[in-house]
Design a protein that fits this description.
With 154 residues, this protein is α+β, with helices and mostly antiparallel strands. The chain has five helices and four strands. The protein has two domains: 41 residues, Orthogonal Bundle (Arc Repressor Mutant, subunit A), CATH 1.10.10.10; 75 residues, Alpha-Beta Plaits (2-Layer Sandwich), CATH 3.30.70.920. It has a four-stranded antiparallel beta sheet with strand order 2-3-1-4. GO terms for molecular function: sequence-specific DNA binding.
């Protein structure tokens, strides 16, 4: 927990994570502050970097993206040039939602969103199989979402 946050800041962050479009007046009422004090606190939290961005979370099913695939990638080497080339190339694939450098059996873990298995085959063929430095790739298809959240514990 960050020592820079008091309980009121934590309540503000908690509400904003779940209701990013809440008006300042409603937020102030919810956390028992005046509108001006609430606005100042939110601005301070933004400036301090606690609030990184405001976004709209889209429903992937409504957009025809119903298949989530986790792809473990092992590279042929660990040199800076290999890692940099891989990371630059993976950033250019729009279907890759997340890419994590890992410690463990794989070097990278990717979260890929596709319309279906045929679409994933296309993504694999056109993008993933062409990533630089890849020695091995293993894909696992998610069957259903058990828990999904963007809210961090504050």
């Amino acid at each position: 927990m960050s020592p820079d946050l008091d309980p009121t800041d934590r309540r503000i962050l908690s509400v904003l994570q779940k209701e990013g479009r809440i008006s300042n007046a409603d937020l102030a009422a919810r956390i028992n502050l005046s509108a001006s004090a609430c606005h100042r606190r939110v601005q301070r939290l933004e400036e301090a970097g606690f609030i990184a961005a405001y976004v709209a979370l889209l429903d992937p099913r409504r957009l025809g993206r119903t298949t989530t695939v986790f792809v473990e990638i092992t590279l042929s080497g660990q040199g800076d040039a290999t890692l940099d080339a891989f990371e630059k190339a993976v950033r250019a694939i729009p279907e890759v939602l997340e890419c994590h450098l890992m410690a463990g059996s794989a070097d990278y873990l990717l979260k890929v969103l596709a319309a279906d298995t045929d679409d994933f085959a296309r993504i694999h063929r056109q993008h993933l199989a062409r990533l630089p430095g890849v020695a091995q790739m293993q894909s696992s298809f998610a069957l259903r979402v058990v828990l999904q959240s963007t809210a961090l514990p504050v």
